Amino acid sequence: MAGLDKRVGSYEEALAGLSDNMTILAGGFGLCGIPENLINEIRRRGVRGLTVVSNNCGVDGFGLGVLLEDRQIRKMIASYVGENALFEQQLLSGELEVELTPQGTLAERMRAGGAGIPAFYTATGYGTPVAEGKEAREFNGRHYILETAIIGDFAIVKGWKADHFGNVVYRHTAQNFNPLAAMAGRVTVVEVEEIVEPGALEPSQVHTPGIYVDRIIQGRFEKRIEKRTLRG
């Protein structure tokens, strides 16, 4: 059983093997459920030329936004520019290559990568700039475009609980892109709030089975709120 234990003791060990010009899949939506400590370790390592796949790119000074600050990201594949002014600035200046992808398509591209499906047809984006350069076909009187799957060299994921074997449970909306990213990484690293003993998780509670996970680390999280809205 010891050989199945996927726990690591440091963030340096968690991202061992990460190097320049790799593709990284990052879970999270806005600042919800982001692997904030793994992002900080990427920043610390100073790797460059990265292609990052995530719904958005954090905010100025937090989340994936810190990698933009250090000019570590070469290309961003995302569905939303979000609240990040630096993202917008680097996009408009041509410093950052950006591939905007409809949100559902982005999710399915990662799911397909994890499921071994190389490409799929979707009606989303047909007749728009999203479809430029892509194969189009008609099925049952409706037009579709071909989208390719995404696989990352690394996937960085934020979970709530995990056991020693890498079975992961997410809490509420942190299920956003995290389970999909976890499926599609050649090396999948998950940071969690709590690591529990084997057998402590009911099989029906597990969202990401340990077969997808290579390394687990327990961390402490700031959990910032992207935009606070109050109503009296």
TrEMBL record:
It holds the Pfam family CoA_trans. The keyword GTP-binding does not apply. It catalyses: 3-oxoadipate + succinyl-CoA = 3-oxoadipyl-CoA + succinate. InterPro entries: 3-oxoacid_CoA-transf_A, CoA_trans_fam_I, CoA_transf_BS, NagB/RpiA_transferase-like. Belongs to the 3-oxoacid CoA-transferase subunit A family. Gene3D superfamilies: Glutaconate Coenzyme A-transferase. Pathway: Aromatic compound metabolism; beta-ketoadipate pathway; acetyl-CoA and succinyl-CoA from 3-oxoadipate: step 1/2. Keywords: Transferase. Its EC number is 2.8.3.6. GO terms for molecular function: transferase activity. This is 3-oxoadipate CoA-transferase. The keyword Transferase applies. Transmembrane segments: none annotated. PROSITE patterns: COA_TRANSF_1.
